[in-house]
């Protein structure tokens, strides 16, 4: 601990804005630090997250090492830095002002402070449930010690057991479930994951996993929601529906779920159930070929869209499915007058 | 056991009210009773837990405040050793961190009044309302915004009493309430469902209060139509389900069962009606006696414990009325109803807990005809989650 000399540097001594390069272990971010503003305040204002706790110079959490430049803390008070640390260039960023363009080294990755940091772990298979002829629901349990959180709509990569193949799948479970994730996976005639799920997968298997990944998710502004899902593109929609359940709005939620063949359909009972407790949810199921199931339409998700679906100017659209469907849906939505920035899409490829 | 006795998986059914099945820790962003007013003397602090939120309730200059019961410094519970050094503040007994009651800001540190943290840090506060002897706290997300009115989370005001004498509402003027609350083992939903369940009358068959009053309590009440249980969904108001025991056309009471040679006892019929409300409160009209009403709250503490509240209210117009109520409460309602009759419920709920926690009872139960109102409740409750409490523990799943 050191007590700086009593002649505090007057804040007026900093008269110009200075750039500070924050050198994280995973990259550098540059911020402008205005005169009279601390580096921590400037970073917060710029949306760059730094490790900190007390913000008043007592806890010592926000320490950084000044590699070059001129970074000064007001003198005349007690700081939780030793003299030798000060001499080595350590500064508390919540108290530090930049007197010149400077570079500050931080001993952690910037990604550590992301709202949903990416983790790598090994999960255990909790259940393998066939939802239909070609779709499996895979439930993975994360280890107790792992702190995992995600935004509804995001996905993870997982390594197919026994191979070095990685595949990406969106969580179908809600963001409230952080230790038990579920995925709805299309099982194809061949393919690494498909073969594993069809022939090998068993409760207790270990699966390496990395995530969360992806920027697909609900926009902040409330308004009607239009979801268009092709096949297992339904997964992120289910996750987002769980968020919408407690969003406390009465705006309509329209879910259009399309499959190519009747045999590919799944989760119709699940969607029925959700309709029963989400009064503002409307579900439209559509299949390319005519099928003999009540309330199931013939066509594709795009052909059953109506101008009414996007009539409200605050409608947000979420699309997930095969590329061709996405493209067609996007074109149709634009044609119906939706603005491009209200159309959010997540593309997946069969694998 | 035969193979068919294992066919009790209700996983398919539970999806019809999945949000409710998931609400192990209870519904967040609702008003819950925290303490009885007379449990919180001026200048004192009590610690409570609701849905995993540890909350310190402090009374200062007559007013009740609720704050996070966890000091920001080293995380001890403020209520572990209450320390109130001035009006308008609460102090952590460990290192003297002192917080303002209005907004939770750190106002001083007893042994270090110049510390830089002062004025720059604090603990969260919770909205509080106090009415008719109960302190309520709004518990949930810190960024929820303005809470809905307290009345939306209490049982609705009854207007359609068959004898044209509706029981008092918890927020009415001119009423008196007495009651108790206790921490019980068991998930809050099992308690709530027990209170409503028309099929559970059997556990009360030999209760003292029924013998003492010669009450004719049926062995069961079977619904005759779908409308036996009514869903009540008031805009911006209470959401609940009501067993319409006021409509004799909707129910068939079972008074004897010759197969087991069992008959309902008692000769004096008595009207009462039960209803259950989000986020977990019960109203039993004209119980334990006419013109009185018993309210129960099943306040989630965590996923395996709830605070069981039993409140009796009635209207009074004079001090004599109050004295009469107090006499009856102390000598009759407390021992025979709240502790006697209701202890049969407590025993039943605690006995249910194991199945629902260790054997996934929500997916492995087999509800029967008698449980129609439980299903109605679950479906209604599934539609109104303002949020879900979550385990605050980082060492738990």
Key structural traits:
heterodimer, A: 351 residues, alpha/beta, six-stranded antiparallel β-sheet, 6 helices, B: 397 residues, alpha+beta, four-stranded antiparallel β-sheet, disordered N terminus
Describe this structure in words.
The complex is a heterodimer of chains A (351) and B (397). With 351 residues, chain A is an alpha/beta fold. Chain A is 16% helix and 32% strand. Chain A has a six-stranded antiparallel β-sheet with strand order 13-12-15-10-11-14. In chain A, strands 19-18-17-16-20-21 form a six-stranded parallel β-sheet, with helices on both faces. In chain A, β12 (155-159) and β13 (166-170) form a beta hairpin. The radius of gyration of chain A is 26 Å and the shape is elongated. Chain A starts with a strand and ends with a strand. In chain B, α3 (188-196) crosses α5. Residues 1-5 of chain B have low confidence and may be disordered. In chain B, the strands form six sheets. In chain B, strands 11-21-20-19-18-14-13 form a seven-stranded antiparallel β-sheet. Chain B is globular and about 80 Å long. Helices cover 19% and strands 28% of the residues of chain B. Chain B is built from six helices and 21 strands. Chain A binds chain B through residues 54-58, 77, 144, 147, 176, 179-180, 245-246, 248, 269-270, 273-274, 276-279, and chain B through 12, 15-20, 22, 115-117, 120-121, 379, 382-383, 385-388, 390, 394-397.
Count of strand segments of chain A: 21
* Residue share in β-strands of chain B: 25-35%
Rg of chain A, please? Answer: 26 Å
Multimerization state? heterodimer
Order of helices and strands of chain B: HHEEEEEEEEEEEHHEEEEEEEEEEHH
Structural class of chain A: alpha/beta
Q: Class by helix and strand content of chain B? A: alpha+beta
Mean pLDDT of chain A: 92
Please report which band the strand proportion of chain A falls in: under 5%, 5-15%, 15-25%, 25-35%, 35-45% or over 45%: 25-35%
Largest interface: A-B, 22 and 25 residues
Widest beta sheet: strand line-up of chain A: 13-12-15-10-11-14
Instruction: Give a short account of the largest sheet of chain A.
Output: 6 strands, antiparallel
Low-confidence parts of chain B, pLDDT < 50 over ≥5 residues? 1-5
User: Helical residue percent of chain A?
Assistant: 10-25%
N/C terminus separation of chain A = 58 Å
Encode the helix/strand succession of chain A as letters.
EEEHEEEHEEEEEEEEHEEHEHEEEHE
Low-confidence stretches of chain A: none
Computed over alpha carbons, the radius of gyration of chain B is: 23 Å
Largest sheet of chain B: 7 strands, antiparallel
Give the termini separation of chain B: 33 Å
- Supply the number of helical segments of chain B: 6
């Amino acid at each position: 601990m050191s007590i700086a000399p009593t002649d505090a540097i007057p804040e007026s001594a900093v008269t110009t804005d200075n750039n500070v390069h924050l050198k994280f272990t995973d990259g550098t971010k540059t911020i402008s630090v205005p005169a009279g503003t601390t580096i921590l305040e400037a970073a917060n204002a710029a949306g760059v997250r730094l490790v900190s706790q007390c913000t008043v110079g007592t806890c010592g959490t926000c320490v950084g090492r000044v590699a070059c430049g001129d970074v000064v803390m007001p003198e005349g008070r007690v700081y939780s830095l030793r003299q030798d640390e000060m001499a080595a260039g350590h500064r508390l960023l919540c108290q530090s002002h930049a007197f010149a363009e400077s570079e500050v080294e931080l001993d952690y990755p910037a990604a550590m402070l992301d709202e949903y940091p990416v983790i790598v772990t090994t999960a255990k298979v909790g259940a393998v449930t066939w939802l239909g002829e070609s779709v499996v629901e895979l439930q993975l349990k994360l280890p107790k010690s792992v702190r995992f959180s995600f935004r509804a709509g995001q996905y993870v990569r997982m390594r197919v057991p026994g191979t070095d193949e990685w595949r990406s799948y969106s969580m179908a479970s809600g963001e409230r479930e952080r230790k038990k994730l579920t995925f709805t996976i299309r099982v194809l005639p061949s393919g690494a994951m498909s073969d594993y799920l069809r022939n090998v997968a068993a409760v207790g298997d270990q699966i390496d996993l990395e995530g969360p990944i992806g920027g697909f998710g609900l926009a902040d502004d409330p308004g009607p929601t239009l979801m268009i899902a092709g096949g297992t593109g339904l997964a992120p929609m289910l996750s987002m529906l769980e968020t919408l359940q407690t969003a406390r709005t009465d705006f309509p939620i329209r879910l259009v779920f399309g499959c190519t063949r009747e045999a590919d359909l799944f989760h119709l009972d699940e969607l029925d159930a959700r309709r029963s407790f989400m009064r503002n949810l409307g579900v439209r199921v559509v299949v390319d070929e005519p099928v003999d199931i009540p309330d199931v339409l013939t066509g594709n998700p795009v052909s059953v869209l109506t101008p009414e679906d996007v009539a409200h100017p605050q409608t947000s659209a979420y699309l997930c499915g095969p590329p061709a469907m996405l493209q067609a849906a996007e074109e149709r939505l634009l044609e119906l007058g939706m603005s491009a920035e209200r159309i959010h899409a997540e593309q997946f490829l069969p694998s | 056991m035969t193979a068919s006795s294992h066919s009790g998986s209700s996983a398919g059914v539970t999806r019809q009210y999945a949000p409710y099945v998931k609400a192990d820790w209870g519904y967040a962003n609702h008003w819950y009773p925290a303490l009885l007013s007379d449990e919180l003397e001026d200048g004192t602090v009590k610690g409570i837990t609701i849905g995993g939120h540890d909350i310190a309730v402090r009374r200062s200059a007559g007013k009740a405040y609720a704050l996070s019961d966890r000091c920001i410094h080293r995380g001890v519970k403020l209520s572990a050793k209450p320390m109130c050094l001035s009006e308008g503040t609460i102090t952590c007994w460990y290192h003297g961190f002192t917080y303002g009651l209005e907004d939770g800001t750190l106002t001083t540190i007893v042994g270090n009044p110049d510390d830089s943290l002062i004025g720059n840090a604090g603990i969260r506060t919770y909205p509080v309302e106090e009415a008719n002897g109960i302190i309520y706290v709004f518990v949930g997300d810190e960024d929820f915004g303005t809470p809905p009115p307290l009345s939306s989370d209490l049982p609705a005001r009854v207007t359609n009493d068959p004898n044209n004498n509706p029981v008092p509402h918890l927020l009415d003027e001119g009423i008196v309430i007495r009651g108790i609350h206790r921490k019980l083992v068991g998930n809050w939903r099992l308690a709530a469902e027990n209170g409503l369940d028309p099929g559970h009358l059997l556990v009360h068959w030999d209760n003292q209060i029924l013998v003492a009053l010669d009450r004719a309590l049926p062995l069961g009440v079977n619904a005759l139509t779908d409308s036996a249980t009514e869903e009540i969904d008031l805009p911006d108001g209470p959401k609940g389900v009501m067993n319409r025991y006021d409509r004799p056309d909707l129910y068939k009471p079972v008074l004897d069962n010759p197969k087991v040679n069992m008959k309902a006892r008692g000769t004096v019929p008595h009207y009462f009606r039960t209803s259950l409300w989000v986020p977990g409160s019960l109203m039993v009209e004209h119980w334990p006696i006419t013109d009185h009403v018993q309210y129960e709250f099943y306040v989630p503490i965590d996923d395996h414990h709830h605070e069981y509240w039993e409140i009796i209210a009635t209207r009074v117009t004079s001090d004599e009325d109050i004295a009469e109520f107090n006499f009856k409460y102390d000598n009759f309602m407390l021992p025979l109803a709240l502790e006697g009759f209701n202890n049969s419920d407590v025993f039943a709920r605690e006995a249910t807990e194991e199945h629902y926690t260790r054997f996934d009872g929500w997916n492995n139960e087999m509800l029967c005809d008698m449980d129609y109102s439980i299903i109605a409740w679950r479906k209604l409750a599934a539609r109104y989650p303002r949020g879900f409490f979550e385990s605050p523990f980082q060492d738990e799943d």
